Amino acid sequence: MVLDTGTTAWILTSTCLVMLMTPGVGLFYGGLVRRKNVINMIALAFLAYAIVSMQWVICGYSLAFGTDISGFIGGTEYLGLTGVGMDGEGIPDILFAAFQLVFAGLTLAILTSGVAERMKLASFVVFGLIWTTLVYDVLAHWAWGGGWAAQLGALDFAGGTVVHISSGFGALAIALVIGKRAGFKEINMAPHNIPMTLLGAGLLWFGWFGFNAGSALAADGIASSALMVTNTAAAAGALSWLLASSIHGKPSAVGMVSGAIAGLVAITPAAGFVDVWASLIIGIVAGLLCYRCLLWRLTKGLDESLDAWAIHGMGGLWGAIATGIFCSPLITGGNYSGLIYGNVNQFLINAGDAIVVVIYAFVVTYAIAKVINMVMGLRVCEDEEYLGLDIAAHGERV
Question: What 8-state DSSP symbol labels residue 3?
Fold first, then answer.
């Protein structure tokens, strides 16, 4: 098979861009926690990437992209990346595996929102290995590896269901199991370094161009369109969240970048299927919706600490549904169309797929967390939580 050097160069670049999003998550989250936990929060992002890098090579890629088994999971022919070489269609197979690896690593890093400032490192390692195998790999196979969702015709260009619904609702599930931080709503837990959070958001926005445009798996018009709609949705989300938050007080810088990420999340499943005007609507709705979800979480006293559920979970759910609404035959060359173009079936398929993923991700994550909590405990002791995990877990301080 003949490799396309231009496309190969673009996917190599995109892989590096997506990898940069993992420390971006670490910085984004690290600025939002208290000073005594910043090292731990950033370290969890790197640890997530390391865990998944090993798991993906050993079995994850095969489970996600191996021969379909009953529409649920892939086969074992690629264990240890056996048979995944330097040949392929357009790009080397080994590069495709690497590109998918960085998606998986980022997903687990996002999920750390639900355990901020209170999880044992050893328990996180065990949880990460099991969760990636039973949740992420399964969902990746459903959407991209020939599983039932792909067979049904569900559209997920770059991971609205696989990455964002899974990590967002997974974060909510494990937060419910591990419990609230000590002193939640009783003591000051304000972000310790907002500039760090803004820098993390900037890295995420930058890396997202590889995340979405790279998912075209070609250096072509679809990749170019995906890049433009990605940027448009991010900007729209930032401005709509900023406007909404200003109604309740001063416009928040953290809120603005949170809105940008909400827009990025929501456009992810739709990036290769919608036009610029649709991306504008998707981003505006994402900013408003995710902001309202954050407020709802706070009123309910849920300590899903850094709002992966409100932003990634609900933003991903909206994006998956919006893909079924706005999918344009002009962008897809007539291959796909959404509700506004008269295709009710695509809307129903995408909405149904998103709901199934929400249920699966939440229930399985909750079960995994429950079992690990019973066997080895998820949470550090009270004294360690009071001292801060930078010292208690790493013996280091800022």
Answer: B
